Amino acid sequence: MEEDMSETLEHANAEFKKQNFKLAEELYTKFISSCVQSRVCEATNLSTAYNNRGQIRYLRVDFTEAVEDYTSAVQADSQFEIPFYNRGLVHYRLGFFEDAKSDFQQALKLNPDFEDAKVSLQQTLLDQQHKINRGY
Q1: Residues 88 and 104 sit within 8 Å (Cβ to Cβ)
Q2: For the chain, which end, N or C, has fewer CB atoms within 10 Å of the first or last residue's CB respectively?
Q3: What are the average pLDDT values for consecutive 10-residue runs of the chain, which has 136 residues?
């Protein structure tokens, strides 16, 4: 069973890399469902599956579903900085600067050399200040 699940995740990752997002999303969903039912998955694999499915949903502009997947990824493996960063990007795009700031800071706490998170945090702080200055 675990070997089948491993193959499903590998297949999903391969399709994701080829940008076959519809099939990749279906495979990630199958993997996630199997993990949740069997409870024998490695946390890093489950977190990666949620994160990558969230990325597909983000690209499709399904922000609510993307945030849900990134949150599930964080819950599966709280030491994986990428879903914090990705969720921060969605929060930033939606203008939820406090949430974005918190996510970027957590990503940087886990990986202080994460350049994209540094840049995104700086931009979030600037935009948050501009929003305050405009009286919003």
Answers
A1: yes
A2: C
A3: 80 96 97 90 94 97 97 97 98 96 98 98 93 80
Supply the pLDDT for residue 3.
Answer: 60
* Long-range contacts of the stretch 58-63 (C-beta < 8 A, 24+): 58/86, 58/89, 58/90, 59/21, 60/21, 63/90, 63/93, 63/94
d(CA 1, CA 34): 9
> Is residue 31 within 8 Å of residue 49, measured between CB atoms?
yes
Nearest to 31 by CA among 17, 45, 21, 43: 45
d(CA 104, CA 126): 14
Task: Show the tokens assigned to 104.
Answer: 């970027």
